User: Which sequence fits this backbone?
């Protein structure tokens, strides 16, 4: 790991690490932010914690941070809201800007843009109160995946194997958003691809395969158990891995993401074709998280990864 010089450290200035927040993913964000804070401090960087759920934007401005590392997940941290506030306050920040953050948080808009760009993603329908559930099931086929389109960490995600389960899944998702996303179920293996950089410099880190108990990579199995297995690199033809990396980077660029993100991919068993699921513009940085795992595979330590991400912090809507 490259040691930062005093000049490097001075260039970062006073750094805020934003974590916690008020979303359903607060607990995970606290774990991510605590790790990032410790990593930056271990490199001599003047880093300070800041929880937007406990302190106001006025206090954020008063801290006079030279830049901030966003370790918030979900609503009001990953959805463009905070990014807009930081633009107004003139505080450079990590990750994607207002538009890409908002779009990436909305799985429906993400799918529309990916399909427009010719990228593969499962067939879907958008449901409202008057939805014809039997008709949707007949069109897409069973099983189905039912999702709250603006939640993360597998919150509000249900697998429907029979028509009589569809209404119950819809009823659980509907209170979370103003629409419900339904996708065709893709039978196959689950992968994720971390992407670092911006525009033409965006690059994929090695592919990670996720093997969860009974194929259920839910909130508990993501963060709080040790039964989920991860393989990096996976046992998979290199050409398929290269194609996953290619579509992940293209998906990232299509949404205008920058800095870093993680793109989730399913590999269909029947024909080994990859399908894009979603993008996470502020991925987890916990002990179970996948971006640090992929970074380690290319010799990039957790601390070095945090520094690289911090180095990319900037204002996106201001020409300087």
Assistant:
């Amino acid at each position: 790991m490259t040691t930062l010089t005093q000049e490097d450290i001075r260039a970062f200035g006073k750094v805020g690490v934003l974590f916690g927040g008020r979303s359903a993913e607060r607990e995970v964000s606290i774990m991510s932010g605590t790790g990032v804070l410790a990593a930056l401090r271990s490199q001599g960087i003047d880093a300070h914690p800041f929880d937007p759920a406990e302190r106001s934007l006025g206090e954020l401005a008063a801290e006079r941070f030279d830049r901030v590392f966003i370790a918030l997940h979900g609503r009001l941290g990953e959805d463009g809201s905070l990014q807009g506030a930081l633009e107004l306050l003139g505080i450079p920040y990590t990750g994607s800007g207002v538009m890409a953050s908002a779009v990436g948080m909305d799985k429906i808009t993400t799918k529309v843009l990916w399909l427009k760009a010719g990228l593969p993603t499962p067939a879907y329908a958008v449901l409202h109160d008057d939805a014809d559930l039997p008709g949707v099931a007949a069109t897409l086929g069973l099983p189905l995946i039912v999702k709250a389109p603006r939640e993360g960490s597998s919150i509000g995600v249900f697998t429907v194997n029979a028509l009589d389960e569809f209404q119950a899944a819809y009823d659980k998702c509907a209170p979370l958003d103003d629409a419900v996303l339904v996708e065709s179920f893709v039978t196959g293996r689950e992968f994720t691809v971390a992407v670092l950089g911006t525009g033409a410099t965006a690059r994929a880190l090695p592919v990670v395969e996720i093997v969860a108990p009974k194929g259920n990579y839910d909130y508990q199995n993501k963060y709080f158990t040790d039964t989920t297995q991860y393989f990096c690199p996976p046992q998979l033809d290199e050409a398929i891995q290269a194609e996953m990396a290619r579509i992940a980077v293209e998906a990232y660029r299509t949404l205008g993401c920058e800095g870093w993100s993680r793109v989730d991919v399913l590999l269909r068993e029947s024909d080994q074709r990859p399908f894009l699921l979603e993008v996470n513009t502020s991925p987890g940085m916990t002990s179970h998280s996948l971006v640090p795992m992929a970074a380690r595979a290319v010799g990039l330590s957790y601390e070095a990864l945090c520094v690289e991400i911090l180095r990319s912090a900037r204002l996106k809507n201001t020409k300087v």
